[in-house]
Here is the input.
Amino acid sequence: MKHSFIDQYSGLDSFVHRLDPRTKIIASIAVILVILLTPPGSWKAFAIYLLILLGWVWMARLPFKYVLKRSLVILPFVVMIAIFIPFFKEGNEIWGWNVWAWHIGITYEGLAVLVNVIIKGWLSMLCLIVLTSSSKFADLLQGMYRLKVPLIFVQIISFMYRYIFVLIDQAMRMQMARDSRNFGVNRWVIFKTMGNMIGMLFIRSYERGERIYAAMLSRGYTGEFPTTSRLRFRLTDACFATALAMLLICPAIFWW
Here is the structure.
């Protein structure tokens, strides 16, 4: 089976790839916080954030097409959540429609909030894609552990990334078996089969997790992941963090 790993470009050699994972994690969190705290309508500030992220992509030597394609995945989910904001936000109405005793209207302020949410969501996802694409997933987990992220969270993320591909393979094999046996049947039978597949996949995942946990205990698992790699904070990390902080402060000074 073919899978799309989130760190498939982590093996490249670039300035960003050589940074300490802790530096990249903290920098990504800082960028996302600044983006989220930017007041609505600060379009010049959003443009600067986009240029900063594109410069980050360029320094990491990541394919722009790949980054753009993956970042657009978040847009349907953001639109699905925020699509009703223009109808409930008070302000200057630009379109209205009376439905019996109800009045449905779209306001300019509501559209501005919707666009603001979409832009912030897309820029935040772009930042996360650069982070995961320029770092090996094991290094990110170690960086999170060194930053004192609760161990239970690190373990959950680690197991999720380790076994999500196994579950996808299992689901794809079940789908192939279903398609080979359901040729020419009606949709109701197909939906019923899909429900049975979801239930079976859940049971198999639970049983697999029990077997994996028993195997880990038998091999001396104590709740921590030993690693031979060592993280070091270098001068380049300090320079990168300082330059990024100065770039993020500029929009706050001039346009906030």
In short: Residues 237 and 243 are 10 Å apart (CA to CA). The two ends are 49 Å apart (CA to CA). The longest strand covers residues 93-99.
